[in-house]
Design brief:
single chain, 193 residues, mainly alpha
Length: 193
């Protein structure tokens, strides 16, 4: 199976290499072809080369002028007059109707920084509370696992003691059975099997 896997891996690599080379040629091939053809056109010694694609049959290398029927450009002033100077009509009294927005707009830089600091402190306090809760839960679960492990250890010890006791009892019973079997043979008993 490993040789089949190696062959499949080698085949997959070969397919990827072929795919990569063909993709590279597909993307860059036309550009290289045009560049090579232009180089052959400039070289006067190679007159038997075919003309490059998309060129006219004339011997001049200059492109003919393009004929464009493009529409006239539309100015931003005509599309959205309010956006040219980035002002909104009636924007001077923006937020004056809403008392909360108006109060927020009139706050100074120091007040905004105090609010930002208070918000960050609140976030830090929430994260600390969450971290303490998580640590407490981890401790509780750890103690519970320790109790379960102690129960398992004591049960294992009890089972081990019971097994050792049963082995000792089995040895004693085998000795008693062997003694009785020996007495029975001495008295003429034979094994029916």
């Amino acid at each position: 199976m490993s040789s089949g896997g190696r062959q499949a891996g080698a085949f997959a690599r070969l397919c990827l290499v072929i795919l990569a080379v063909s993709s590279a040629l597909l993307v860059s091939g036309p550009a290289f072809y045009l560049r090579i053809m232009k180089g052959f056109q400039r070289n006067p010694s190679s007159s038997s080369s075919p003309p490059p694609p998309f060129s006219s049959s004339s011997s001049s290398s200059a492109c003919p002028n393009c004929i464009c029927d493009c529409p006239a450009t539309i100015s931003l002033q005509k599309i959205a007059p309010g956006l040219v100077n980035l002002t909104i009509p009636g924007g001077a009294d923006c937020g004056k109707e809403d008392s909360e927005v108006g109060a927020e707009m009139e706050k100074g830089r120091a007040d905004l920084m105090k609010e930002e600091a208070a918000l960050r402190m609140a976030v830090v306090e929430d994260e600390r509370r969450h971290m303490n809760y998580t640590i407490g839960e981890a401790r509780r679960q750890g103690l519970q696992y320790q109790k379960e492990a102690q129960k398992c250890n004591s049960a294992t010890e009890a089972c081990e003691e019971a097994r050792e006791h049963a082995e000792a009892m089995l040895k004693r019973e085998k000795k008693v059975t062997a003694a009785w079997e020996r007495r029975a043979r001495q008295l003429g008993w034979t094994d029916p099997a």
